[in-house]
Amino acid sequence: MESTDSSSGSQHPRLPPGFRFHPTDEELLVHYLKKKAASVPLPVTIIAEIDLYKFDPWELPSKATFGEQEWYFFSPRDRKYPNGARPNRAATSGYWKATGTDKPILTSNGAQKVGVKKALVFYGGKPPKGIKTNWIMHEYRLINNNPSSKPPGDSANKKGGSLRVCSSSFNCL
C-alpha cells in the first residue's frame, strides 16, 4: 500500500489526490493511537514510528511519513528512572519542556475522556540554562483506566513505558 518517491527515495503512502491529514485530537487518539496500542491495523499508514528523543526537532521532518508544516510520530514514552513515573524528554542537543496544563481530550459527545494532550517547547542546551526555541510539540496519551490491560507484545510496555503519538511543528512566535 506504499509507493516509493523516486526523487527522495523515501516511502510515502498512496493517498488520493487532494488528501489532507488534519485529524482532530479525538481522531488521533481513537483512530490511530488506540489502534496502534492494541496492535489493530490503522486506517492508513501515515504516522511514522520513531524514538523522537534521539533526534533534534529540525531532524524530525525528514523522519516523517507525511506532512509539510506539521509532522506526526508514534514514539515510546521513556522514563527518566526505571522505577519512576517521570518521563525522559532529553534530546540530542537540548530537551523538551512541558508548558501549560494537560488538556483532557473528550469524545465528540463529551461523555468520555479518551486521553490527554500536553504541549512541550524545545530548549537548546542543558537545563536549567536552556535557550527556548520556536519548536513546539503536542504529546497525546491515552487514558488507561485498567493498567493490567496492556496489549500483548507491545515493546513499549515491556520497557515499562507506554506508547504515545506526537505532533511536532515549527511555529514562529
From TrEMBL:
BP GO terms, sorted: regulation of DNA-templated transcription; seed development
Chain intervals with Polar residues compositional bias: 1-11
Keywords: DNA-binding, Nucleus, Transcription, Transcription regulation
GO molecular function: sequence-specific DNA binding
Top-rank taxon: Eukaryota
GO CC terms: nucleus
Domain NAC: 15-171
Region spans: Disordered: 1-20
Keyword hit for NADP: no
PANTHER family associated with the record: NAC DOMAIN-CONTAINING PROTEIN 72-LIKE, PROTEIN CUP-SHAPED COTYLEDON 2-RELATED
Protein name per UniProt: No apical meristem family protein
Lineage, highest ranks first: Eukaryota, Viridiplantae, Streptophyta, Embryophyta, Tracheophyta
